[in-house]
Write a structure and sequence with these properties.
The chain contains seven helices and seven strands. Strand 2 (36-41), helix 2 (45-57) and strand 3 form a beta-alpha-beta unit. It is globular, with a radius of gyration of 17 Å. Helix 4 (109-137) runs parallel beside helix 5 (158-178). The longest helix is centred in the middle third of the chain and has 29 residues, at 109-137. The protein has one domain: 3-Layer(aba) Sandwich (Rossmann fold), CATH 3.40.50.720. It is an alpha/beta fold and 248 residues long. Residues 11-196 form the Ketoreductase domain. One of its GO terms (molecular function) is oxidoreductase activity.
Length: 248
C-alpha cells in the first residue's frame, strides 16, 4: 500500500451522508485503504447503492444503510444493522450535513433548529453510539466534518456557522476524554469544494477569491480524512482543507 495511506484491513467504517459528494469520496478512500464500508444515506438510495457497487467492484465489502442521523432511534437501528451485517464499527466519519443559504433576515427558528440537528446533533448521536465498542477494543477513529465557516463569516448563513463551530467544540471535548482509550477524534474543515452543494458558491465566483484560484475537490478532503485516520498521535485537531481561504 502506498506511503501515507493507513492500513485499515479488518476495520469497519461508517460514513454518514455517503451517497454523494464529500461523503462518497471519503467512503471510497477508506475502502481503498482496506476498510469494509457502511454507506449511510437518508433519501438517495440509488446513489448509495452505486457507491456500494463501486467498492464491491474493486474487491471491497460494503453495505448501504438508510437512516436520518439526526434522529436517535434511527441512529440506534443503523448501528445495530451495521454491526449485524459487517461487524463492530472502528472508524466513524460524521459527514452528513445540510447548508441551505439563508440571510439573517430570512432565517427562521425551524431552519436554525434543522441545521443544528443535521450538522451537530447527528455527530453527537453517532459518536455516543459507537464509543462503547471502541472503548472496549481500545481502538477507534472518529472524524467530524467541519467547515471554513466555523471560524469565518462564511457564505451560507449564521445557522451554518453555529453548527460547524459546534462540531469543532464537540471534537475537542470528545478528544480530551477518550484519548487514553486509544480513540482519536479530529475534525476536517473544508473550504469551498466542487460538489452539488457548492452550486451557490459557483454562481458567486468564489473560486476567483481563493488564493489557489479554484474550488477544492472532494478527493482532496478525503485525503485529509485518511491522514488523521492513520495517525494515532493526532487528536483534537481541525485540519483545514480550504485553498488558503483562512489559516487555522
Amino acid at each position: 500500500m502506498p506511503a501515507g495511506i493507513p492500513h485499515l484491513n479488518d476495520r469497519i467504517a461508517l460514513v454518514t451522508g455517503a451517497s454523494r459528494g464529500i461523503g462518497r469520496a471519503i467512503a471510497l478512500a477508506l475502502a481503498g485503504a482496506g476498510a469494509a464500508l457502511a454507506v449511510n444515506y437518508r433519501q438517495r438510495e440509488a446513489e448509495a447503492a452505486h457507491v456500494v457497487a463501486q467498492i464491491e467492484s474493486a474487491g471491497g465489502r460494503a453495505i448501504a444503510v438508510r437512516a436520518d442521523v439526526s434522529a436517535a432511534d434511527e441512529v440506534a437501528h443503523m448501528i445495530d444493522e451495521v454491526e449485524k451485517r459487517l461487524g463492530v464499527i472502528d472508524v466513524l466519519v460524521n459527514n452528513a450535513g445540510t447548508g441551505t443559504v439563508c440571510d439573517i433576515d430570512a432565517l427562521t427558528e425551524a431552519e436554525f433548529d434543522r441545521t443544528l440537528a443535521v450538522n451537530l446533533k447527528s455527530a453527537f448521536l453517532c459518536t455516543q453510539a459507537v464509543l462503547p465498542g471502541m472503548r472496549a477494543r481500545r481502538w477507534g477513529r472518529i472524524v467530524n466534518l467541519s467547515s471554513a465557516a466555523a471560524r469565518g463569516g462564511g457564505l451560507v448563513g449564521v445557522h451554518y456557522n453555529a453548527s460547524k463551530a459546534g462540531v469543532e467544540g464537540l471534537t475537542r471535548g470528545y478528544a480530551a476524554r477518550v484519548a487514553r482509550d486509544g480513540i482519536t477524534v479530529n475534525a476536517v474543515a473544508p473550504g469551498p469544494i466542487d460538489t452539488e452543494m457548492a452550486a451557490p458558491l459557483k454562481a458567486s465566483n468564489v473560486a476567483e477569491r481563493l488564493p489557489v484560484g479554484r474550488l477544492g475537490e472532494a478527493d482532496e478532503v478525503a485525503q485529509a480524512v485518511l491522514m488523521v485516520t492513520g495517525n494515532a498521535f493526532v487528536t483534537g485537531q481541525t485540519i483545514a482543507v480550504n485553498g488558503g481561504v483562512n489559516f487555522i
